[in-house]
């Protein structure tokens, strides 16, 4: 079946059809691919999947947005379908679970890193799997390179999580993430939302999902699911608790008529929406692309909230951007539209320091590409480093990083420089 035929089908607007036809194997891509006469593209994808920590899962809706005549450069393809020929060696500072989420989990399925807010991992499934995902240690299926730490069954975890939240009234803000709440059944979504609303100390609840960006027809076709979300939002409003919906668009090309219809529906039904993007090379590492994204999101009544620099994840070094580039793009954006629709660019610091404004480094050496951050509200006694991607550095600096002795010195010099600077303030 051709792509046009797919689009014409009534089923295309049905989320259940999209989920049933999600592509998880390379051979299923063949019908979308057009000519690949010598099979080289197929082999390249197979090589990419063998090297990547995430399993593949992509909806027909997204496959239809890819420009297959320009497959390698396509910004949507890059986020979901790896090719072996683009993968670069990872930065030596990389470790799996670089955000140390597992260390900050007081109970299974809850990350409590910041004082008054916590992150709830409600599922390990997503409607799609993103190459650059931070949680590649737990979401998705096992791959050839990673065997995932499975979360225990939800019902077992849920009572423990609620008990912890009830006993920890300092937590007023809960992010429901995962995985992705688009993969929660309406009854489960409702149970999570109402369960959290039954705890008087919780003042704000966010549902984080990639769904609006990759499966917008869920909102317009899965009425039971959307009603569950709206019921939670209405119940929250009635008791003075803010319920919000956090989406994840990375490129203006991800916003279609389906997205507009879904966002309009949510807006009309009183759902507050915000967006968190990831800064990705070849996807949105361009001020013009980012400006379009911000404008389009604003028109959807989705507030651009954050742009994250890419976490240190194995197999995606080619997608990371430098701190310098993040600062430049932020500078280009600020002032183009309402300040409240201008995203803050943040680094989620490896080692568990939490999110820091990308500009707020204590020290940044553009030669070695190492930025050093403080996180007074999270771990005041520690310094946190974020490395620019190796390919953004000079050949000499790259060689230095690959030599363990010199790499150690780069780290200790940067930390020392940051200490001196922060003491002088
Ligand atoms: C991002 C995050 C939050 C929410 O942080 P905000 O800056 O308020 O968006 C909460 N907990 C964890 C562990 C997080 O990573
Ligand atoms: S949807 Fe979110 S949690 Fe799921 S793979 Fe993508 S970035 Fe990771």
UniProtKB/TrEMBL annotation:
> Where does the record place the Radical SAM core domain?
112-341
Which residues are modified to N6-(pyridoxal phosphate)lysine? 355
Which cofactor is essential here? pyridoxal 5'-phosphate; [4Fe-4S] cluster
Keywords, sorted A to Z: 4Fe-4S, Iron, Iron-sulfur, Metal-binding, Pyridoxal phosphate, S-adenosyl-L-methionine
The Swiss-Prot or TrEMBL record annotates one GO molecular function as: metal ion binding
Similarity comment: Belongs to the radical SAM superfamily. KamA family.
Q: What is this protein called?
A: Lysine 2,3-aminomutase
């Amino acid at each position: 079946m051709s792509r046009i035929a797919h689009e014409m089908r009534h089923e295309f607007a049905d989320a259940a059809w999209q989920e049933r036809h999600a592509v998880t194997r390379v051979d299923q891509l063949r019908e979308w691919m057009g000519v690949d006469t010598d099979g080289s593209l197929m082999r390249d994808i197979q090589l990419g999947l063998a090297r990547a920590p995430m399993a593949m899962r992509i909806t027909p809706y997204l496959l239809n947005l890819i420009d297959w005549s320009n497959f390698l450069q396509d910004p949507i393809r890059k986020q979901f379908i790896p090719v072996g020929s683009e993968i670069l060696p990872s930065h030596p500072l990389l470790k799996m679970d670089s955000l140390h989420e597992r260390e900050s989990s007081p109970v299974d399925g809850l990350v409590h890193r910041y004082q008054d807010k916590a992150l709830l991992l409600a599922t390990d499934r997503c409607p799609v799997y993103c190459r650059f995902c931070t949680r590649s240690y737990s979401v998705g299926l096992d791959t050839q390179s990673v065997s995932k730490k499975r979360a225990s069954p939800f019902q077992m975890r849920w009572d423990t999580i609620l008990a912890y939240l009830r006993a920890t009234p300092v937590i007023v803000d809960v992010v429901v993430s995962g995985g992705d709440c688009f993969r929660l059944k309406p009854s489960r979504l409702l149970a999570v939302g109402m369960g959290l609303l039954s705890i008087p100390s919780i003042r704000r609840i966010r549902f984080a999902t990639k769904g609006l960006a990759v499966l917008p027809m869920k909102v317009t076709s899965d009425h039971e699911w959307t009603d569950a979300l709206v019921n939670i939002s209405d119940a929250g409003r009635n008791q003075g608790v803010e319920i919000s919906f956090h989406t994840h668009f990375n490129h203006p090309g991800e916003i279609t008529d389906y997205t507009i219809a879904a966002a309009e529906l949510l807006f009309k039904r009183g759902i507050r929406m915000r967006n968190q993007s990831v800064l990705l090379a070849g996807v949105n590492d361009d001020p013009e692309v980012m400006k379009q994204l911000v404008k389009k999101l604003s028109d959807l009544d989705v507030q651009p909230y954050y742009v994250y620099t890419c976490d240190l994840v194995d197999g995606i070094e080619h997608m990371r951007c430098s701190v310098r580039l993040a600062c430049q793009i932020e500078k280009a954006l600020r002032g183009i539209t309402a300040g409240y629709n201008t995203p803050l660019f943040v680094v989620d610091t490896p080692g568990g320091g939490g999110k820091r404004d990308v500009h707020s480094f204590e020290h940044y050496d553009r030669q070695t590409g190492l930025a050093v951050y403080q996180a007074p509200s999270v771990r005041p006694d520690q310094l946190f480093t974020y490395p620019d991607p190796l390919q953004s550095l000079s050949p000499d600096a790259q060689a230095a990083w690959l030599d363990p002795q010199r790499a150690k010195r780069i780290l200790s010099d940067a930390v020392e420089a940051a200490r001196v600077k922060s003491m002088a303030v």
